[in-house]
Design goal:
about 0% strand, 16 helices, mainly alpha
């Protein structure tokens, strides 16, 4: 009896045969060989994100809009500086692995770099955030958030490394320990009626660290002896990826951070559950993008464009299906999981639904842009979008609160989609 994955593989190959009238589609048989592992990786990421969405919804319902807004504000404000830790190094390593280069040495350098960046930046950002919020968020709570974010950033490096080596079983193991552990910790604290946000942050960071320890045992600890040595990272190569990360973080996290500063924790408490649901669904196209990038990168320069039709078709289809699901189920989902106190979150979720389609198509464009080595040109639409997003949030939040952030998010993502589309059009014209 055939397994579910085998049925998908057979269907996929038949689709390629039927699509053979399109030029160069047979190249995609190379991708179909990786389908079983790709499916396991996708399943792992989906389960992980679904668990985190469930975590956010349960915690929001239990704490209520005000206290959950406090929790989400702390993570958003501290998460805003996560790009200083990552600085595009993980995506850069993924590209190196796709070229067939030995990524192990770079992997160790990235782990060491992240540690040194964290030691330097964490105290500064905790102090700045405390001042910015006039002491309304405890510095101790911000410290726990910062540690959790740092541990998660390191876990991402290990997962990307395992993805390059196609060790998908290990990825699933790490994600399940971390994500399910967080969920069990949440349920335990609810049972014993704990209501302080810092306790949930401590539990979350503990299980994030546990998943990271399992990751470390996979590759060993040779980098620990060199932890304080200067990392040998090629800064010039990483800069385009780093700035790309910075601008991506700005228009992903700026809305929640600015909402916290300009409108207060209650508005964050209503807005954040909606964005959590959107982020959870976006893991589907994002996982496909991460999986395809090393495979397409191995093709000769210019051959990535030959995947344009099937890649965009797949991402558009996924985006449309997920958008329809949100439009039809937004109010029911928020009422069922969050209760009447979060009725506003349902309307916000519906207003954010176009973002899923925009982002899905963006992932298709970015897969081709990065595979063809045009990462630095990707910065142009990202810079414009980041400025637009922050400006719109400043203009709209004082008058419309969370709904103003939703409008800013939609407009920004639409402009970013147009920018990526123009870059892809440039690629097509130059590879005819």
């Amino acid at each position: 009896m055939k397994t579910f994955i085998e049925y998908i593989s057979i269907f996929y190959k038949k689709f390629l045969i039927l699509s053979s009238r399109f030029k160069n589609i047979p190249y995609l048989f190379k991708i179909s060989k990786n389908l079983p592992g790709f499916s396991l990786f996708t399943t792992s990421m989906l389960l992980s994100q679904a668990t985190m969405m469930l975590y956010a919804l349960i915690l929001a319902r239990y704490l209520g809009p005000e206290k959950y807004g406090y929790f989400a504000s702390g993570y958003s404000l501290m998460g805003f500086w996560a790009f200083f830790i990552n600085f595009g190094m993980d995506t850069w390593m993924l590209q190196k692995g796709g070229k067939g280069e030995n990524s192990h040495n770079w992997f160790e350098e990235i782990i060491r770099s992240k540690f040194q960046i964290f030691i330097f930046w964490a105290p500064i950002f905790i102090l700045l955030t405390t001042i910015l919020k006039n002491g309304s968020i405890s510095p101790l709570f911000l410290l726990v958030c910062a540690i959790d974010i740092y541990l998660d950033c390191n876990s991402t490096t290990y997962i990307y490394k395992l993805n390059i080596e196609q060790r998908y079983n290990k990825i699933m193991q790490i994600l399940m320990i971390s994500r399910l552990g967080r969920l069990f910790g949440l349920i335990f604290f609810i049972i014993i009626r704990v209501r302080e946000p810092i306790n949930f942050a401590l539990s979350r960071s503990f299980f994030t660290g546990l998943g990271l320890i399992v990751s470390m045992y996979t590759f060993g600890f040779p980098w620990i002896q060199k932890l304080f040595q200067k990392p040998a990272i090629p800064i010039r190569e990483i800069l385009p990826f780093g700035f790309s990360d910075i601008f991506a973080q700005i228009y992903v996290i700026a809305d929640v951070s600015l909402l916290s500063i300009l409108a207060g924790n209650n508005q964050v408490g209503l807005y954040n559950p909606a964005t959590q649901i959107i982020s959870s669904l976006l893991i589907i196209p994002n996982t496909i993008h991460i999986s395809l990038l090393p495979v397409i990168k191995k093709q000769k320069h210019g051959n990535g464009i030959k995947f344009l039709f099937p890649i965009l078709s797949a991402f558009i289809s996924i985006g449309m299906i997920l958008t329809i699901i949100i439009v039809l189920g937004s109010r029911w989902v928020t009422l069922f999981f969050l209760g009447k106190a979060f009725v506003g979150s349902g309307y916000i979720l519906m207003s954010l639904s176009p973002i899923i389609l925009f982002k899905s198509i963006q992932f298709g464009f970015v897969t081709l842009i990065v595979s063809e080595g045009l990462q630095k040109f990707r910065l142009i639409p990202q810079i414009i979008t980041a400025i637009l997003n922050v400006t719109l949030n400043f203009l709209l939040i004082p008058f419309y609160g969370a709904f103003g952030s939703a409008v800013a998010y939609n407009v920004s993502e639409f402009f970013l989609l147009i920018g990526y589309g123009l870059l892809t059009l440039y690629l097509v014209k130059n590879n005819k």
